[in-house]
Amino acid sequence: METKLQSKQQYPRFIQNKPCGIDKFDGGSQERLAKTIARHFCQNDSLDEECTLPRIIGIEGIWGSGKSNVVKMLERELSDDYYFFEYDAWGHQEDLQRRSILELLTSKLIDDGILSGNATIKVKGGGTKTVSWSEKLKYLLARKTETVTEKYPLISNGMVAAFLVAVLTPIFTFIAYAVKPTPTTWWFSLLSIIIAALPVLIALCVWKWAYSKDHKYGWSYMLAIYQDKVEKDVCYETLSEDEPTVYEFKTWMQDISDFIKEKGQRKLVLVFDNMDRLPAEKVKELWSSIHTFFADSGFENVWAVIPFDETHLACAFGDETDEQTKQLTKYFINKTFPIVYRVAPPVITDYRSIFNKLFVEAFGETENEAKETINRIFRLVNPNANVREIISYINEMVALKQEWCNEILMINIALFCLKKTDILANPVEQILSGDYLNGIQTIINNDLQTQREIAALVYGVDVEDARQIPLKKYIEGCINGEEDHDINQYAETNKQFDTVLEEVIQCMDNALIDKIIHCLHKLTRKSDVILRVWQRIAQLKLKESIEKQVFPVEYQELLLHLDTESQNHVIAQLYKKIVRFNDFNGGDYFKTLDAIDRFIAQNKLACDFTSLIEAKTVKPNTFIDYIQAANATDAAYRDNATTKAYKYYQVATNSEALDNYLANLLPDNFDHADIVKTLKDNSTYTFPTLLQAITNCIDEQNVNKDNIGAIFTTYRLLASDEERPLPVTLDSTYINQLHSELETDGRNIKESGYCTSLIMVDLFISN
C-alpha cells in the first residue's frame, strides 16, 4: 500500500526498502507461509502446557528472500493476540546482548502499555520492594554498589587557634593581675588589660593575615568552627558491581510472562533478526542465550522467532563450504528449533512480475517503453537476484533519473546501474569496446548515443561534452604508451575518431610532440582530417630547435605522413637547422645530409633536396672531418656514383689555410694522406707548404715507424711526375732500422699501411 507521502510524490520516487508485510509474488507463497506459522502459534498455545512444543521457531531463507516480510505478515495475522518485538542483533553487536535485549524490550513494552502498574523487586540484603516497571528496569540495569565509609574528622587551623586562645586567656589574665602593683596607676591598668587580651589580639592578627592570603577564612568559617561543623573527611569505600546474570535474565522474562498472563495482555513474540550477520563469536554467544532461555522449558507467554540464512550462519562454525561445518550447523539448528519454516525464493514468473510491479511503483507509467527491456537485461545478468537486490537496483535508477531527468535515456541509466562495476573498472576501454555488454549485446547496441550517455554518467559531465571523453582518453593513453593501447583499435570502427584525434592533438602539451609522432606513425587510417593533424604536428615540431646534427627518427616518421608540399617545407626547414647549427661538425653534417638524401630516394619522395644545398665555407679541421665522413660513405645508391661524395653538399675551406693546417701537423700528428688523395685532382686545393714540410722531415730524417706511411704516401701524391725518383729520400741504413723497429713492435707491415711506402722508397733509392 502506498503511504500518504508517496501518493503526493511525483515520479520517479524511491521504493521503501523495509518489509511492508505484503506478498507481492503472484504465487502467494509468503502469504501462505505466514498463515501456516500463525496457525502453529495458535494451535500450540491451545494445548496443555505439558503437551506444547518449545515456543521457538526458525525461518530459514537466503538473504533477501523475504524472511522479514514474512515476519511482518505473521505480525499482521496475529496482531489481535500477540505483541511483536523485533531485536536487531546486528545493530546491537557492540552491546552486551542480555542487557540490551532487556532494556529495549522492557522500555518498548512500557511505552506501548503492555507493562503497566507496579512490580515487585528483591532488594540486596533480603526483602522485597514494590516499584513501577520503569523503576524495576532501572534497578535491574543499574550498577549496584555497597559502600562502607569510615570518616576521620580533621582538626582545622581555626579550631587549634580557638583552643589556644581559650586556654591562654586565663593564664595571661592571671599574669596581668600578678604584675599589677597595689597602688596602681592608669597605665599599669592599661598594661594589665593588654597582657590579658594578648592571646586574642595575636589570634586576630593571624586571622587577618590568613584572610589576606585566602578569603575563605571569613566570618562564615569562624561560625562553622563554633557550630561544630567538620569540612574535611578522610573516606574509604568498598565497591561491588553486578551485571544482569543468566538467572536474572530468565527471572525477568518469567516475570514478564507471568504479568502478561495475570493482566490478560497479548502474548509476546520476540524476533531476533540479522543474527546470521554477526561475527562468529557474537553468533555463538547469542545462540547460546536463545537456546538457554527459549529452546528448553521456555516461557508460557513468550515466543521467539529467529530468521536465518543457513549458509551464512555456518560461517560461525568454520568454513561454510566444509561438509563437517555444514553438519555441525544443522545439528545446532535441529537442537534449537523444533520447527524450521523455509522461505522459498521467487520463481521466474514471480521474478518478472515483482520487478515490473516495483518498477511501476518507482516510475509510474512514465517509462513503459523501457520497462520490459530493463526487466529482461536485469534478469539475464542477475538470474538469482532477490527482492532486496531488485529494490536496491531500482532505487539506484531513481537516484540517477532524478539527477539527469530526460537528458539520458532510461535504458542507458539502467544499463549503467547494472554494469557499473565492469564499466568503472576500466571506463575508457569498456565504453569504447562495449565489452561490458557481454551477455546482453543482442539486446543493447554499443552505438554512439549509448557511449555518449554512459560516459556522461561515468564522468558526471553534460552528455554533449561526454561524447568524446572515452575515445579522447583512449587516444591519450596510446600517446602516453599505456599498456594494451593500440591507436588502430577504434580508428575504423568509431565514426568520431578523426574529430577526436584532431581535438586531442590540439590540446596536448607540445612537450609530448615526439610521443605523438611515434604513436600516430603506427596509425594506418588515412583521411583529410588526419593529414591536417600531421600538418599541425609538423608545424609544432619545426618550432623546436635541434640538439645535434642528425636526421631524427621523429622527422623521418613525420615526413612519411605529409603531402608533397609539406614534405618539402619540413626538409627545407630541417636543412636550415642543420647547416646553421651552432656547434657545426663537418662529419655529422655530411652524415646527416646523406641520411636525408637516402631517405628521400628510398621512400621516393618528390623532393629536390639538391636545390636546397647552400655553399658553406668551414675551418680546415671541420673540412677534414667532412672529407673523412664523405670518403667512408657508400654512394652506390646515387645515379652518378663516380662523383666524389664530398662534392655533394658544397662544403669548402680556404686552400692556403688547409695547406698550413696540414703542414703544422708534421711530423708526429700528420695522418691525412687520404685528404690529400681526395683533393689531389681538385685544382682549388694545392699543398706547397705541406710538400716543403714533408721534404724537410725526410731530409732531416724526422720520420719514424708511426708516421712513415702517411708521410711517404703524401710525398708521392704531391711530388710531380718530373721529380722521379724523389729528390729527397732516406738512406738505406735508416730504412733498415725502421724495418727492424716495425718487426720488433710486432706489427703486420702490410696491415700497417707502410709496406707500399717502404717498397716505394727502396725503388727510389735503387733508381
CATH class of the largest domain: Alpha Beta
Q: Biggest sheet, open or closed, and with what strands and sense?
A: 5 strands, parallel
Structural class: mainly alpha
Shape: elongated
> How many β-strand stretches?
9
Sheet with most strands: strand arrangement: 2-5-6-1-7
Could you tell me the radius of gyration in angstroms?
55 Å
CATH architecture level-2 label of the largest domain: 3-Layer(aba) Sandwich
Number of helices: 34
Give the terminus-to-terminus CA distance.
Answer: 131 Å
Share of helix among residues? 55-70%
Stretches with pLDDT under 50, minimum 5 residues: 1-7, 226-241, 748-754, 760-767
CATH topology of the largest domain: Rossmann fold
Give me the oligomer status.
Answer: single chain
Question: What is the number of independent domains?
Answer: 6
